[in-house]
Amino acid sequence: MAVSNKGLAQSSPTGKNLKKNEAEISSFGGDLEEADWAVIFDMDGTLIDNTPYHFKSWQALFKKYGKGELSKETYYTKISGVPIMETLKDLFGSDHDDAGLKELLKEKEEYYRQIYAPHLVAINGLEKFLTELKEAGVKMAMATSATVEDINFILNKIPIRDDFDVIVNSSMVSKPKPNPQIFLKAAEKLNRPPAKCIVFEDSLAGIKAANSAGMKVIAITTAHTSEELHPVDLVINDYAELTPHKLSELFN
Prior knowledge:
Layout: H1 15-27, E1 38-41, H2 51-64, H3 72-79, H4 84-92, H5 98-116, H6 126-135, E2 139-143, H7 148-155, E3 166-168, H8 181-190, E4 197-201, H9 204-212, E5 216-220, E6 234-236, H10 244-248
Parallel strand pairs: 1-2, 1-4, 2-3, 4-5, 5-6
Helix pairs in contact: 2-5, 4-5
C-alpha cells in the first residue's frame, strides 16, 4: 500500500487520543449506532479494474471512424471519468447527430462488455471491505459517470448492489466530473455533510471533483501511479489492508 500525500497523520495515538481511538474501535461492530461519516465510491477503475477494456473499446471506435490512434495520455486526461455522452459529443459531434451519437454509444459499450465480461471481478478485498463498512454502520454510495446499463452490467455480475444505500449515475446530474456535483448529490442523499465523506477514486477528474466537494479522497492505482494521484489523503493498490477504523482515522 502506498503512502498518503495529503497530510494523513501517521503517528501513534497517546493519552486521551488513545482512549478516544479505543472507543472508536469498540463502536465498529454489529447492531450499534451509525457512523457519522460516509463513503462514496466511483465505479469504473475503483470497484472493478476495467479501465484497460474501456481503453480498448475507445481505441476500436477511434480507428473505425477515422479519428486516428487514441493514446493512453488522451484517454486518461480527457475521457476517463467523464460521462460517455459528453465525450462522444465532444469528439464525434461534428460528424454525428444525437441519434448517431447514441448509436456510437451502443456500439462502444457492446464491444466493451463483450471483451470485459470474461474478466469481470471485484478489485481484491472489495467485497469483504464493503461488508465490514456495512456492519460498522457506515453509509455508502456509488457515484459514477457510467450509464445505468453499464452499472447493471457490473452489479449483475458482482453481488454488491445491496451494500450501497445510494447509487447516483450520470443522468442524475447536469455537470460532469471534475465538477463536484455528483459527489455533493451523493452526500446529500446519504444525509452527511461533505466534510464527513470519503471518496474512493481512480481518475484525475474524479479526484479533482472530490477535492472541490471538500471531501476526503482515497485514490486507487488502477489507472495511475501513486505519484500521479494527488492531492489525496491516501493511495491504495487494493482494499485488502483497509478497515473501517483506518478510514475513521482520516477524521482525527
